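note to self: dont lose this again. the chain is below, predicted strucutre after it. 185 aa total, dont forget to put it in the shared folder this time
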Amino acid sequence: MAAMVLGTAAGPSDARATPAPTSQSVAINEISRYCQACWRNARLPADRWGDCTQQVFTRLLENVQMDKWNGLLKSEGEEKSEFLRAIDAVKKRTQRDRRHGELTNEVSDRRNGFEANLRDRRESVKLAAAEVLSDRQQRIVEMSAEGYPVPEIADHLGTTPERISDEKYKAIRKLRLHLRSDVDG
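---
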């Protein structure tokens, strides 16, 4: 990271170029460590830390002279304010990207498969019910699947909740036996 920043600041590389002063390397390392602590505290994905730090350095190169980077973390002033604004902007942009990135079509919606499976199962039960259940038992099972409680089914069909509960139990047992025989046979 430090080599990239120093290379960018120094201009085109030259085989005979002298290495950057040690104080600049120290400043870059301190800024990098500070940025990493900020990304960790903001709970940004670790695989994005390098990119985020590079964005901060890019903004610093544009707005703060490199010779002022040495005291950037120790002093107060416009340079430190610019540094903190850069960190905040990068952090917020990355968090926004992460939030909006989850809404893309790249990940399939599992509900579609679940709903299709549920639809297929209900259709199988409906066909089996037509084969093995009486009309009354079919209606009880349908109403139960629609979410009606036993007392309401009893009121609708003009009988007691106990009778509905008993018929529902027998209907479900018939369906299970029928569906198991289809799977086994």
